[in-house]
Amino acid sequence: MQKPSPLLIACNECGLVSAIPPMEGSSKASCPRCGHTLVRQVENSPAKVQAYGISCLVMLTLSCVFPFMSFSASGISNNISLLDALKVFHNFDNNALAAMLLITIIVLPAIYISLVMFLFHVASKSSKGRGVNTPPSLLKQLSRLVFRVEIWLLVDIFLVGVIVSLVKIAALADVELGAAFWAYCAYSALVVFFSRAIDKEWLWENLFPLYPTGKVKPGDTHLSGNHVACRVCQQINDPHHKHCQRCDSRLHPYNPDMNIGWAWSFLISAIIFYVPANLYPMMYTVSLGSTERSTIMDGVILLWNLGSYPIAAIIFIASVFVPMTKMLIMIWLLRAEKQGKEDDTNALKKLKYYRFTELIGRWSMIDVFVVAILSALVNLKGLMSISPGPAAFYFALVVFFTMCAALIFDPRVFWGPLRHRDPAASPPVLPSAAQPQE
């Protein structure tokens, strides 16, 4: 079906409705007010998705089948697979954390890749006028699931955690990398290429074309009261609709008080768990009968004293600086909303801080992954062993709740009603032309 002209999209970050001009090749269109990417068009997206998807699944299978790495000292060695590293917390009676690692590294990525490939296959058949046997309700459910789990894929972060682990134990004994390690490196890179190959607008348009947007026009915002935008498929709906008429997602009308309240709840939970995450030991090291407990800062200090300055810096930034900075920024943003609005320049400044918290939040999981790798690898039958401490679970909760706080927070509050002017009196901001992708 022919795309409607012009394509109207409401920005998820500032609420401005923009008219997207026709786009060719690989290009993108950004919001003229806040710079958020509204549409990213990928040339030959269906073929790229299938090619990268198959490669991802092959490499994931290889990384689970072959040995991942081995550790040897004083004639004693230990080999582990990728699954051994992911389920190590289960061996120490921390099933929740073991399940989280297994889900975010293996299960969710495999489901995500498989479902995206399936949806693009169905959309390709639909675009060529062929019949589709899959029920529309099922397609909508799968599409909603796919684009909601993207943020929870931690494949690349786990790889960085593995590299940090290797540097951390290289001075203790000999470490040998297995075929699964190199397969996982390829898998991590391919997942990035796979996600970049997805043209969401093409997929939605060929599965479920946009419905007419009624009286909505470019320059309208979330304060206009004439629409509710779906954050999943970008359909602009009438304000009286409870569910999106395109993808059936539940619609959430602009309600800053409720969103800020939920964000405060998640943020306070993260702050509470941040205390035991730093006070309790992150891991225990047993060497020749003596046990040494290490907190997060103990690990950073030890690496620094050993001369591993880059690794010590990475652990400090990911495990101390990032979560603390994210919580402080979120506190500042939430408190700033109670002080009234100023102007669009100030709103854009706040939005940049918010985007920073979204960008860095996931990377705090590096330390948890380092503990998992070390606990699985360093187990030399009484000579030396490493086991996770209670801080690993609390720290994972800190990362989870800070991510939830950022996800539930609605950045459109930055462009709420202004004290000194009527937003309805402001001239509409028209979108700039789409720009070619680099």
Care to describe what's here?
The protein is mostly helical and 438 residues long. It is 52% helix and 12% strand. The strands form 5 sheets. It has a 3-stranded antiparallel sheet. Strands 6-5-7 form a 3-stranded antiparallel sheet. Strands 11-10-12 form a 3-stranded antiparallel sheet. Strand 1 and strand 2 form a beta hairpin. The radius of gyration is 24 Å and the shape is globular. The relative contact order is 0.16.
Topology:
Blueprint: E1 7-10, E2 17-20, E3 27-30, E4 37-41, H1 45-65, E5 69-73, E6 76-80, H2 82-86, H3 88-91, H4 95-127, H5 136-149, H6 155-169, E7 174-177, H7 179-196, H8 200-207, E8 228-229, E9 236-237, H9 256-279, E10 283-287, E11 290-294, H10 296-305, H11 309-336, H12 344-360, H13 366-377, E12 384-388, H14 391-408, E13 435-436
Antiparallel strand pairs: 1-2, 3-4, 3-13, 5-6, 5-7, 8-9, 10-11, 10-12
Helix pairs in contact: 1-4, 1-7, 4-5, 4-8, 6-13, 9-11, 9-14, 10-11, 11-12, 11-14
